[in-house]
Amino acid sequence: MALPLLSGSLKVKTMIVRTARALCLALMASTASAAMADTNSNAKISAPRVFRPVTADREYASENLTQPVEIPGVPMFTGKAKFLSGLRYPNDRSGYRIGLTYAATEDEGQIMDWYRSALGTYSWKLLPFAPDGKTLTAVKDGNTFTVRISPNKIPGYRTVMVLSFKAVGR
Asked: Are 102 and 84 in contact (CB under 8 A)?
């Protein structure tokens, strides 16, 4: 008698497994067809909306600079450099931030040597060098100044310098 009961139980288990497989396949097929419909439609896919206060947008809004500005406590590069662009963040509550980009005729090594020497003369503390030697960061009175260099493709100029300054507080 135990054999038919076992056989019936096995049939029930087999039916449950087959039903579960069929449901899984149906679910996978409907998910795949929905995904295909999304990729084939001309509907725009929008990025998830980030909810933050409007004041945050104003705080991090940048202002384009059309000419270079003086960076407090940092000497102006004395080599031949052409101002390319700049940004200022006038509403940043954490402090004064600016970024300036220049094209320079000097090579990368000359620029980095100049900034190492000049920042030392102005009492900036140089942080350990970046392994690639293309970034130099210095701190003074809680402020941070960074020089990043890379090769340039503008005729007559060899290097691009990106200067970043962050002053704490206001």
From this structure: yes
Which residues have a Cβ under 8 Å from the Cβ of 44 and sit 6 or more positions away? none
Contact 90, 63 (CB under 8 A): yes
Q: In this predicted model, what pLDDT tens digit does every residue of 35-67 receive, in sequence order?
A: 334 444 444 444 455 554 555 566 667 888 899
Q: Report the amino acid identity of residue 25.
A: L
Residue type at 51?
F
Kindly report whether the global pTM for this prediction surpasses the value 0.90.
no
The C-alpha angle with vertex 84 and arms to 78 and 87, in degrees rounded to 5, equals: 100
Q: Which of 162, 147, 149, 143 is nearest to 97 (CA)?
A: 143
DSSP 11-29: HHHHHHHHHHHHHHHHHHH
